[in-house]
């Protein structure tokens, strides 16, 4: 699965109910691919290619780590502790990803 397909899957598995009242930007810097960002705004989710000017949180990882987290094979917290995933900005928002998207 390509990185673009992984993000399309994420967008399809978006939990709109969990995002009511939220206004966030999750940026993903994929070290061996491109940068993408997801704009979450009051129950909607839009995927964009490229960087955002003011992301709420930026997650930095390679494509293998991204695929593992989205498929459910890799736990995001374990990837973070192992140094496979880095976060910049509001790191607590990264923990919301599991609520906002059905993984696995």
TrEMBL record:
Pfam families: SCP2. PANTHER family: SCP2 STEROL-BINDING DOMAIN-CONTAINING PROTEIN 1, STEROL CARRIER PROTEIN 2 SCP-2 FAMILY PROTEIN. GO terms for cellular component: cytosol. This is SCP-2 sterol transfer family protein. Gene3D superfamilies: SCP2 sterol-binding domain. It comes from Marinobacter excellens LAMA 842. The lineage of its organism: Bacteria, Pseudomonadati, Pseudomonadota, Gammaproteobacteria, Pseudomonadales. InterPro entries: SCP2_sterol-bd_dom, SCP2_sterol-bd_dom_sf. Residues 8-102 form the SCP2 domain.
